[in-house]
Each structure stands twice: as C-alpha cells, then as structure tokens.
Amino acid sequence: MPTTAPRVFSGIQPDAPAHIGNYLGAIRNWAREQDRYNNIFCIVDLHSLTLPIDPATLREQRLVLAATLLASGIDPHKSALFLQSDIPAHSELAWILECFTPMGWLERMTQFKERSARLGNERVGTGLFTYPALMAADILLYDTNVVPVGEDQRQHIEYTRDLAKRINQRFGEIFVIPEALIKEAGARIMGLDDPEAKMSKSIAASSPGHAVMIIDSPDDIRRKFARAQTDAEPAVRFPAGPGVTNLLEIYRTVRELGWEQVKEEFAGKPYSELKRGVAEAVIEALRPIQERYREIRQDDAGLRRTLKESAERLAPIANATLTRVQQAVGLR
Ligand code: ATP
Ligand code: LTN
Question: Is 246 touching ligand 1 by the criterion CB < 6 Å?
Fold first, then answer.
C-alpha cells in the first residue's frame, strides 16, 4: 500500500464471536479494500468492558476475533491488526476527550439510550456512557481519514467529527477530521428472531437464534435460517414484510445481486425456499473463511505475535498524537 494512501481505521468488539452482520457490514469491506488504503484494524477490548463480560470470555474472544479477521482476508502484511489495550494512549486520550465533550452530546447517543434502557441505570457502568469518547480517541490518534463501519456507527462518527472540529477551533489544527464510509448493501442486517432489532453480538449471547455467527456450523446456519421470523403470507410478495426483507437483503449482499435480480428469483416462492436459498448462500460464502479459521487457531502463539507486532509499530504514531494534544491543552 502506498504511504500516501488515505488512512483507514476501524474497530470491532471482542465480546462474542462476530456475526454475518459484522461480516457484511464491515469485515468483508475492510478486507476487500485493503489495497486502496493504509489500514489499521483494532480489536476494541476496552469497549467490551462496557457491558458485563467475564475475564475468561474476554481473553478467549480476543483470539477468536483476531483469527476470524485474518481468516476473512485481513492480511497482516497489508494492514495493522492490534488489541486496543496494548496501546495505553487510547485510554489517555479518551480521558482528555471526555473532558471536552458536553454531557448533552453523549446523552443523545442512541446506542447508549437503547442499552441503558435495556439494562437499567443502576446496572450499567459509566463506561457505556463515555464509550463514544474512547471510540473518538481510537480514530483520532491515527490521523484517520476514513472509517468503514455499519449504519449503527454513523452517529458515533458524527460525534467524533464534531468533537475534533471543536478542539481544532479552540487549539489549532490538532486533529484530522475523519469521514464515515458506509456501503449501501449490508450496512444494517437485522436480527433473525426480531427483524426490528439490529443483529447484535450482545443480543446473540442470550438468544442464539438472533444471529448467524461467522464460525457457525452449516447445520446451525440452516437451523437458524429455518426458524427466522417471517410473517403470515404464504409466499414472497413485494413489498415484503421486515423479516422477509431482511432475508432478501442478506441474500443479495452475500451474492452481490441487485434488488431486481433478487425479486425475480424469489417472487411467488414459498418462504421455505427463500430460507434454504439464503442459508446455502451464506454457508458457501463462509466455508473458506471457516477453513482458514481452523488453520489459524492451530497457532495461537503466532496470532498473539501478530497482534503485538502491530501494536509495537503503531504505538509511536499514537504517542505522537497524544503528545500533540497534551501540549495543546497545557499538560506538557
Ligand atoms: P455489540 O452488540 O457487541 O455492540 P455488534 O454486533 O454491534 O456488537 P460491533 O463490534 O459493535 O458489533 O461492530 C463491528 C462492526 O460491525 C461495526 O462497523 C458495526 O457497524 C458493524 N455492524 C454491527 N452490527 C451490524 C449489523 N447488524 N449490520 C451491519 N453491520 C453491523
Ligand atoms: N463502537 C464500534 C466499535 C469501535 C470502532 C472504533 C469502530 C470502537 N472504536 C473506531 C470504528 C472506529 C462498534 O460498536 N461497532
């Protein structure tokens, strides 16, 4: 990758195995566009502490996710892949950013509102509230130009931009202003058990029928699609209801088809046929990833080495930005 290529940064939480929403909305795009950018991908383990998680799960899921990303085509020769907690500058910059963030900005974040409503204010930690400041630190530390994500992260990136502009206005040109990159297809895959809710790792942990994981067996994938929520219509009709639309969206994104082609293929077909079609398309797309995943997991020491080497290479970049900010605000 040319050193003048725009910098890409994106992150993913190691709270549970990644699902096909993560794959279609983010990971597949990261892997495909590696040659166009100067890439940094981050396993955001500090963010995973914002919801209850036990230590053994966090430790294991960091490796599961690292192996999943490599198996999905993230090439460590083209992209840095590291653990957020390996570079302390993330936590340090996050604190400074929190101090410059009006409370009202964070109170408006829909992810915080939804999650705190689900769990109750006495049960969620303060980290869930300040989460976007840590995400802004991740992005801003590396002079990021482009942040490829799913639709659910748009608001967090808008916040990052607003905050960076606010700080630049006050202290001079400290930060590069990043832009979100959100594709039209696959940016918002919904839960199979509830097409009103975004497919999410944290929901999948308690409702296994909610999401198809990248590392699910073919039988599990068939079973999950067979049970996916649809509606009382006898066959596929347009406009389709939310459950059917979600299955069609998964199908057209996996197969990279336009809506017209998908409509032609499934109009008038019974739901059982649609479900089988989607399941087989997903199984076929995931098969090579699952094979590579199993190979990569044979060598966890090598996996850990890859993560550490990236962190060692990135730390000087992060530290230089942190120093710039510390100087600007009067800490140095
Ligand atoms: P959690 O529920 O633990 O927050 P998540 O499933 O929302 O997990 P993240 O680790 O937060 O996943 O997100 C990783 C990337 O996947 C982000 O770019 C995010 O926008 C994208 N993503 C997450 N869920 C979906 C989805 N349902 N459809 C498309 N993209 C998604
Ligand atoms: N908040 C994101 C994960 C995330 C991220 C980032 C994404 C943390 N830091 C920096 C892009 C850039 C999420 O929950 N999907």
Answer: no
Separation between Cα atoms, residue 267 and residue 277, nearest integer Å: 13
Q: Quick one: three-class SS letters along 73-97?
A: CCCCCCEEEEEHHHCCHHHHHHHHH
Report all structural domains of the chain as residue ranges with CATH numbers, in order of start: 7-183+300-329 (3.40.50.620), 201-293 (1.10.240.10)
User: In what side-by-side order are the strands of the sheet with 7-12?
Assistant: 79-83, 38-43, 7-12, 146-148, 179-181
The token pair that represents 15 in the structure block = 């709270």
Give tens-digit pLDDT for 49-69.
Answer: 998 899 999 999 999 999 999
Cα–ligand 2 centroid distance for 44 (angstroms): 7
Whole-number average pLDDT of the chain? 95
Instruction: Reduce the DSSP state of residue 198 to 3 states and report it.
Output: strand
The atom of ligand 2 lying closest to the CA of 134 is 9
2 has pLDDT over 80: no
Cβ 195 under 6 angstroms from ligand 1: no
Q: Measuring from atom 5 of ligand 2, which residue has the nearest CA? A: 11
Which of 143, 156, 199 to mutate for ligand 2's pocket (most ligand atoms within 8 Å of CB)? 156
Q: Which candidate, 63, 43, 21, places its Cα nearest to that of 200?
A: 21
Q: Is 150 in the pocket of ligand 2 (CB under 6 A)?
A: no
Answer yes or no: are the C-beta atoms of 180 and 153 closer than 8 Å: yes
